[in-house]
């Protein structure tokens, strides 16, 4: 395991799992949100984002945390391992609500209020984004793919993983 992507619905705990995995493996961790967002809540251009991502993909080892459907296949093609946090909607909604007001190493600002557009994206994830993820997982089924259905499975993986 040298090139890892961690994907799943927003609020599923991708960044938390990625940090725990980094602690176990020592692999460098890159958060897509930090490649895409500026601290003033503006975004970089698509070209800049793709260039930043491409620079990470060229490295010998990494963990990349995040979805960004437009670049998911690019990352899946380059990785050797995929962790898909495939959790129920309520778990993800609660995850987003629980992180409100907290400093996060994967975001350049503190979320202080509900973003209704973002919550709507999460509510539609299982019907709009998840089918595309499943198609890519099928296309790249030769990769080491680990699907967790709940937080306990992910926690058990981390607890039982040997360095």
Structure description:
- The chain is 50% helix and 14% strand.
- The mean pLDDT is 91.
- The chain has 163 residues and is α/β, with parallel strands linked by helices.
- Helix 4 (69-78) runs parallel beside helix 7 (130-139).
- It contains eight helices and five strands, in the order E-H-E-H-H-E-H-E-H-H-H-E-H.
- Strands 2-3-1-4-5 form a five-stranded parallel sheet, sandwiched between helices.
- The chain has one domain (3-160): Rossmann fold.
- It has helices spanning 14-25, 32-36, 46-57, 69-78, 89-98, 116-128, 130-139, 151-160, and strands at 3-8, 29-31, 62-65, 81-85, 144-148.
Radius of gyration: 15 Å
Query: Structural class, please?
Result: alpha/beta
Please give the share of residues in helix.
Answer: 40-55%
Tally of separate helices = 8
- Beta-strand content: 5-15%
Structural domain tally: 1
CATH superfamily: P-loop containing nucleotide triphosphate hydrolases
The coarse overall form would be globular
Outline the low-pLDDT stretches: none
Keywords:
single chain; globular; alpha/beta; five-stranded parallel β-sheet; 50% helix; Rossmann fold; 163 residues
Break the fold down into its secondary structure elements and pairings.
Layout: E1 3-8, H1 14-25, E2 29-31, H2 32-36, H3 46-57, E3 62-65, H4 69-78, E4 81-85, H5 89-98, H6 116-128, H7 130-139, E5 144-148, H8 151-160
Parallel strand pairs: 1-3, 1-4, 2-3, 4-5
Helix pairs in contact: 4-7, 5-6
Quick summary of this structure?
By secondary structure, the chain is an alpha/beta fold. It has 8 helices and 5 strands; from the N terminus they run βαβααβαβαααβα.
